[in-house]
């Protein structure tokens, strides 16, 4: 994969705003370095065609020992088949559907994360219905004890929630400690997501990156 050829600003120099900087690229080494630095890429309508890097303040995380699982979610889980890393491209395309409110994911991002997947850094959790159709899923980046969630989707009831349940279970089984969800939305808050300050997040990130996982 090589080394990242870019230098991101030190966190001590970051503005209080969620938006940190622009530039760099979507090469695998750049992405892994950025996530390890507490940053992630995302395009924005206000800067079309510009690669932007973000560090929300506060940051949304889901404490993996506090995922809120309802009886309905447990019942729904019985109706689906969960798989891991079998169709990341399909999950990304579904998450990037332009008909979705947050369907901003572009072709270059899909290509970049596909490369990351082939290198073992990007992963997806997929939920299939009884007919074998993709009903929901999520994808993100794993570095040691960190899973940086990028996006999730569903076309059947509770399918994305089932994917999240499966992810958290996998994280628990492998000793991972930090599930980053970028921003705490109302939907994620209903599942147990909380806000932490940027300082807290970077401390948790350092612990997760240093942790030994299976």
Structural write-up:
With 214 residues, this protein is of the alpha+beta class. It folds into 2 domains: 11-54, no CATH class; 59-210, Aminopeptidase (3-Layer(aba) Sandwich), CATH 3.40.630.70. The chain is built from 7 helices and 10 strands. The model has no long low-confidence stretch (mean pLDDT 94).
Q: Could you give a quick summary of the protein structure above?
A:
It is built from 7 helices and 10 strands. The chain has helices spanning 28-37, 71-77, 88-95, 107-118, 159-174, 186-189, 198-210, and strands at 19-22, 40-42, 52-54, 59-61, 81-84, 122-128, 134-143, 146-154, 178-182, 194-196.
Record field, number of beta strands:
10
On the 0 to 100 scale, the average pLDDT is: 94
Helix content: 25-40%
| Biggest pleated sheet | 7 strands, mixed
Order of neighbouring strands in the sheet with most strands: 5-6-7-8-9-4-10
Distance between the termini: 22 Å
* Beta fraction: 15-25%
CATH topology of the largest domain: Aminopeptidase
Radius of gyration from the alpha-carbon trace, in angstroms: 17 Å
Structural class: alpha+beta
CATH superfamily of the largest domain: Leucyl/phenylalanyl-tRNA-protein transferase, C-terminal domain
């Amino acid at each position: 994969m090589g080394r990242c050829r870019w230098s991101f600003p030190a966190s001590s120099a970051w503005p209080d705003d969620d938006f940190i900087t622009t530039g760099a690229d979507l090469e695998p080494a750049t992405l892994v370095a950025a996530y390890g630095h507490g940053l992630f890429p995302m395009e924005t309508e206000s800067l079309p065609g510009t690669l932007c890097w973000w560090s929300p303040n506060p940051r949304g995380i889901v404490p993996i020992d506090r995922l809120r699982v309802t009886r309905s979610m447990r019942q729904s889980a019985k109706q689906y088949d969960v798989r891991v890393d079998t169709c990341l491209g399909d999950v990304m395309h579904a998450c990037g559907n332009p008909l979705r409110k947050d369907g901003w994911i572009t072709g270059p991002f899909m290509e970049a994360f596909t490369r990351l997947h082939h290198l073992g850094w990007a992963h997806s959790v997929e939920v299939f219905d009884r007919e074998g159709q993709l009903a929901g899923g999520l994808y993100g980046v794993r570095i040691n004890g960190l899973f940086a969630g990028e996006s999730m989707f569903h076309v059947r009831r509770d399918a994305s929630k089932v994917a999240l349940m499966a992810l958290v279970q996998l994280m628990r089984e492998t000793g991972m400690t930090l599930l980053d969800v970028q921003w705490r939305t109302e939907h994620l808050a209903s599942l147990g997501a909380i806000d932490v300050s940027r300082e807290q997040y970077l401390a948790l990130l350092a612990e997760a990156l240093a942790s030994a996982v299976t």
